[in-house]
Task: structure prediction
Amino acid sequence: MTVKAKAAAKATGSRAPTAPRESISALRGRLRRTEMLIKLSQRVAVIDSLDDLLATLVEIIANETNAERGTLFLNDAATNELFSRTAQGTFNREIRLLNNSGVAGSVFQSGEGLIIHDPYKDKRFNDEIDRKTGFVTQSILCAPIKTARGEIIGVVQTLNKREGRFTPEDLDLLEAMASQASVALQSSQFIEGMKKTRQQEMEFLDLVADITSSLDLSVLLRRVMSEATRMLKADRSTLFLNNEKTDELWSEVGEGLNAVQIKLPNTAGIAGAVFQSGKTINIPHAYADLRFNPAFDKKTGYFTRSILCVPVVNKNGKCIGVTQALNKRGGPFTAEDEARLKAFTAQVSIALENAKLFDDVQNMRNYNQSVLESMSSGVITLGEDGRIHTCNAAGFRIFKVREADVIGKPAAEFLTGPNAWVLDRLKALDASGAKADTLMDAAIEVRGEKLNVNLTLQPLISLKGKRLGSMLMLEDISSEKRMKSTMARYMDPGLADQLLAAGGEALGGASVEATMLFSDIRAFTTLTEELGAQGTVALLNEYFTLMVQCITDEGGMLDKFIGDAMMAEFGIPVAHGDDPDRAMRAAIKMITELRSLNQRRQARGQKPIQMGVGLNTDHVISGNIGSPKRMDYTVIGDGVNLASRLESACKEYSAQILCSEFTYRKLKGTYRMRDIDRVIVKGKTEPIGVYEVLDFHTEETFPHMPEVIGLFRGALGYYRKGEFDRAIKQFQEALALHPGDKLSATYIERCEYLKVHPPADKWEGVWVMKSK
Result:
């Protein structure tokens, strides 16, 4: 100040201006502030970690503003959220809030700092954290973080100034510190993002390489779901694959669900919508979307908030399934999550198809193996080296060996001795180039036991026509052959084949029409007394051998032997169109064979034997009858009893074959027969016509047969009219032509008796049999 100025001031009583002193104070403040900002820049410049940078900035800002605590929020452009990874005081975790909510959101949106002296009266203030932590927010100083270009990248706020109240100078300082730190924050955020992206890419490549190396579908599904959950920071994930046969999406495993299998139509729910459209669906609020089905949540108690579902597309552009992630931790799924999950599923889709193909091949292999193991036929495959490569359980059973005894062994060491011919046939097949060589009822030997098998030999050819080796198929028919041999003792072998082919159904209970045949040796008791035990057995064996052959030759079934008698049926268990004729031909042949047998017996000095045969056709009940321990396939019914009565009646009528009118009416062939009576057998009330079969006779055994039959027919007519004298005369004429016709003699005696004991007025020629 000049002298004049001082004087003037003194004269007026005014003080000298203090501007210079205030300028120095302001300069000192600005200098201190500049030094602080420089130190701030220097301090944050050496920090690499964004987390450390945030912690350091918060510490500096809280100290410089003399606040109890501070928080720095950065904006997440992907989610439109403000986040803080660290905070002073009791908090040490990431906090996220929408960038348009609360005081911080208001500052971020407006770009203008705020000083709030009473937060609880400000509607923008959210007191939720105070309520959770017990902290009381008394004042707030909040400023935006702006870059040099004016872009707002976050906000910084301090709470509760320790002394006094927050001032505009505090706000100005806070804005300056935020602006100074913005470059470091952007750089750290960018570097961290780059590192994170690179790390994710490396992990992604390692993960894809690791996952795609697996061919086990179950393991692959679990890995994919686990990694998808980790990669997206989701609560759980599910991979659905499409089943083209059932049009269902299925998942064998769901993260957090303890491997629960899920199936749903490939048109249902969010997953179905994505599968059908082939487009990604990202839903931040599941219950607000009509496509979401909450039934699964209700069933499990789970609450679905957000859903990210992307299609799994193969290299041909075909959708083969969908991947679904639920409830991302910290907020909804982002566009980056969509891109990562799409890239992930695109890579694993190849592995999924390979694993599914491998799984299908394994399932087919297991199926084929199960088929082989379930087969009753033995299957043995030989490689080009002549070694046995495979053998199923039936093969081990047939050859009575274990797997270690044959697998990998040369076939020449296994098929030796009596079985060496199999390899000879195999070599001949290879030389001929034929497709197969089948041998029915071939004989092989296993440990000294002979087996009967149906053997098929054929070359093994690949789909490309390359020869892989040879295959042997053996069907053990030993038990079947034994059964057939046993059945053939009772019936024609052809009939036995039909029964074996029909299975058990043919032997079930049924009401069928059949022709029964009974035969019996006459005066057998006297013969046994003369022959003794050994002679009787020898006679029966010789006799039955001839008689059974006659029955089986006509397709009949031997039912049983009853002492010296036989019971057989025609028409069961397999019916023919001419069973009565078959029975008739069998009976005639039996008498013919008996005549030849008697000739041989007489030549040996043995007495001839006589027999009687009874035939009847009727509906009878056939089936396995007996107890669980012993059952016989036989027939029962009145028709069976009548056949037995007719066989017994052969003695009374001096006949060898008698048949009922029921059999007579069913005959299709022509046979020499005569009507001999109408009788009421014991146990019946209605008369039955009885016919004698004479077709086995010759001119020597029955001379003048036509004439005798004619005279007998006429005489029988008089007899039935009650004209007994005329009947006797004609019976005598027949007897004169054939003195051996004992039946005519029997009728003469019957007429003489009736003359003495006249019958009732309504005589119709019906005779009542008193014996069985």
